[in-house]
Amino acid sequence: MSTLAAGEWDGELRLANWSLPLPVLPKDMATAKCRRHGLPRYAKPVPDVTDRFALLVARTNVVKAAVSRLR
After folding, report:
1. How far apart are alpha carbons 34 and 50 in whole angstroms?
2. What predicted TM-score, i.e. pTM, was given to this entire model?
3. Which terminus of the chain faces fewer neighbouring Cβ atoms within 10 Å, N or C?
4. DSSP string computed for 8-57
5. Residue 61: pLDDT band by 50, 70, 90 thresholds?
6. Domain residues of the chain, as ranges?
7. Which 3 state secondary structure label does DSSP give 69?
C-alpha cells in the first residue's frame, strides 16, 4: 500500500486473456496505516461503493491527528 499514490483505487485479477474482479471490501474493515516519504497515510474502503473493490488512499492530516491525540 505504501507505493500507491493518493486517490481511489479499484482492481481486478488478470491472467493471460481473462480477468476476475476482486471481491468487495467489507465496510467494517479496519483502516490500514503506513508511511510514504516519512508522511503518514491510510487506506480504507470507499464508503459509497458497494458493487466492486474500491480502496481510498490518502495522506493523514497531521495537525488534526495531533489535536485528536491531545484530547
Report:
1. 25
2. 0.70
3. C
4. EEE-EEEETTEEEEPPPPPTTPPPEEEEETTEEEEEEE-TT--SS-EEEE
5. confident
6. 7-70
7. helix
